């Protein structure tokens, strides 16, 4: 199998567990891995200290999270790319899968029990709307 495996991350330990599962699946399938972090707002702030000026945005913060995870997953056996994507996490992952003609989306099972199961979860959204196969990694236990 070739193609792209998409995984969503948010900086949490459980998301990192899903990303590591995605890495192993991508290696085994001979696919590329794309690490995606979603952001839901376009909040931008300008920070000035003395003569230094920084522009901080939700998109930049999300991309930094995706980049950090992608760097941790770097492996000679696969190509790892990263990006930020605007939207709610589940919807953003599905959109990225459509854009990149993904073969697989990997998500964790966090919030699939209790009230999260009733109100919805990223895994639930992705499983019901993905244009490709979905792998739900067990991330609620180390």
Describe the structure.
This protein has helices at 13-29, 58-72, 89-99, 114-119, 122-129; strands spanning 4-8, 32-39, 44-49, 52-57, 80-86, 104-108, 133-137. Helices cover 40% and strands 30% of the residues. α3 runs parallel beside α5. The protein has a single domain, classed as 3-Layer(aba) Sandwich (Rossmann fold), CATH 3.40.50.620. The chain has 142 residues and is α/β, with parallel strands linked by helices. Residues 112-119 have low confidence and may be disordered. The two termini are 29 Å apart. The strands form two sheets. A five-stranded parallel sheet has the order 5-2-1-6-7, sandwiched between helices. A two-stranded antiparallel ribbon has the order 3-4. β1, α1 (13-29) and β2 form a beta-alpha-beta unit. This is Universal stress protein. InterPro entries: Rossmann-like_a/b/a_fold, Universal_stress_UspA, UspA. Belongs to the universal stress protein A family. Residues 2-138 form the UspA domain.
Count of distinct structural domains: 1
Task: Please identify, by name, the CATH architecture.
Answer: 3-Layer(aba) Sandwich
Strand line-up in the sheet with most strands:
5-2-1-6-7
- H/E topology pattern: EHEEEHEHEHHE
Q: Helicity level, as a percent range?
A: 40-55%
What name does CATH use for the topology? Rossmann fold
Largest sheet: 5 strands, parallel
CATH first level: which class?
A: Alpha Beta
Taking Cα atoms only, what radius of gyration do you get, to the nearest Å? Answer: 16 Å
The best one-word shape is globular
The whole-number mean of residue pLDDT values reads: 85
InterPro entries: Rossmann-like_a/b/a_fold, Universal_stress_UspA, UspA
Protein name: Universal stress protein
Pfam families: Usp
Family: Belongs to the universal stress protein A family.
